[in-house]
Amino acid sequence: MTTALAVVAGNNRVTILRQTCPGRAGRSGPGTGAERRAEVLHPHGTPNLVAVGFARGPVAESASGSCEHRSGQRRHHRRPADGWADVLRSKDDAVAVDERLIPINGLIALLRGEGGWPALLREQGFRRHQLEVPVSTSLGDIRVDALMYRRSPDLVVACEGKSGRNIEDEQARRYMALDETWLQRAGAIPPELRRASPLAVCALFMGREEQRAELEAALRALNIAAPLLTVGSERVRLSATSGIKGLDDFDTQHQGGLPPARLPVDHQSPDQDLLELLVPQIVAAQARNDDIVPVESLAERILPEWPVLAHGARSAFVGRVGSLLQGLASGDMRGQFRYEGLAQPHTRGRIVIEATPASRDPRGRTQAWQAQQNRAERALQRRYARQIPGQLSLDDLADQGGLAEE
């Protein structure tokens, strides 16, 4: 098995691609077990297309020059022109995601209805408002993982994601104490509901489907009556909504696998998980021949849910990204870019691109990108990216026509 990372730039657009290459049974010789699936680099009237390949592990060329995707369709490609870097492209690979964030990604999938997931919450009229919202209550402060809402009947639901089997007593009771008044003080009421009075507010706990029994037992032990949403690769369940007007139970099987990774990481994720998403964005900026890139722009490209992320969560995430950029600029990617921290109140700094293989003479460009491959590998600090089986990337969904429109 061979994984690959590729950046394709052209027509003012850069696409970041991942790939896993399975071997062909019965084939012998060098590279057995790692066939190359090559995308045409200079195809059909797009002469300004530039490609950058980062291969993890040995890669051998397919004898037929074709590949077979999950759909069963075979796609044929011709060899890249001399001097171009290899591009390894397939949508079969999965985006690494912080496992703590699978419940919140499941909630978003149920609100958007994509990736084979049923739009069960959207069908009830719900929309997401904000993620990671700091709110005070009569019992203390909490950071609400997600606020969703609906109209007629007017209802705001404060969602708390649990990555494990336990529910913390103090935190749960703070959620239960949340009401319209505290949301108003936090400025967290959705604009569509600002004139609604009275406004119903309820708490909802969410976790993994395989941990449902333990989460139900934890709520019973705390004597807390609140809805519980659990998400799994084949089943989603919402229970205990009795008495909450506008929110209904469901228990549905689906074939979507784990939810699309619209929030693959956050400010609490390990450095390694952040680097796996950050380094390709730096390389993409080089491929675009960008000279200056704000840190906020990099963060926004990493997180598709950036527009609904609360200000404090954005600031914390940008701070993490800035720290990682400083380390990369002084370490494995030294000489490729420099990090500039700025004192301006509305920015957390920027990177200035100092070198890019994209500006090299075509005759030396392939070698330059190969050197960049080595730098990226050192920055990522491991040979193979962590994968969660069944986790769809947004590129996967786009290819399948499964991205929801809002």
Describe the structure in your own words.
The protein is an alpha+beta fold and 406 residues long. Helix content is 27%, strand content 24%. The chain folds into 2 domains: 211 residues, no CATH class; 155 residues. Strands 8-9-10-11-12-13-14 form a 7-stranded mixed sheet. It has a 3-stranded antiparallel sheet with strand order 2-1-4. α5 links the parallel β11 and β12. The two termini are 37 Å apart.
State mean pLDDT (0 to 100 scale): 76
Strand proportion, as a percent range, falls in 15-25%
Distance between the termini: 37 Å
Can you count the beta strands?
17
Instruction: Specify the overall morphology.
Output: elongated
- In DSSP terms (H or I, runs of 4 or more residues), the helix count works out at 10
**Element order, helices and strands?**
EEEEEEEHHEEEHHEHEEEHEHHEEHH
Rg calculated over all Cα atoms:
23 Å
| Unreliable residue runs | 8-94, 382-387
Whole-number total of structural domains: 2
State the helical fraction: 25-40%
Key features?
406 residues; alpha+beta; 2 domains; three-stranded antiparallel sheet; 10 helices; 17 strands
Secondary-structure map:
Blueprint: E1 2-10, E2 13-21, E3 35-36, E4 50-56, E5 60-61, E6 66-68, E7 74-76, H1 102-112, H2 120-123, E8 127-137, E9 140-150, E10 155-161, H3 169-176, H4 180-185, E11 200-208, H5 212-221, E12 228-231, E13 235-239, E14 250-253, H6 271-287, E15 292-294, H7 295-302, H8 311-330, E16 337-340, E17 350-353, H9 362-380, H10 394-400
Parallel strand pairs: 3-5, 10-11, 11-12
Antiparallel strand pairs: 1-2, 1-4, 6-7, 8-9, 9-10, 12-13, 13-14, 15-17, 16-17
Helix pairs in contact: 6-7, 6-9, 7-8
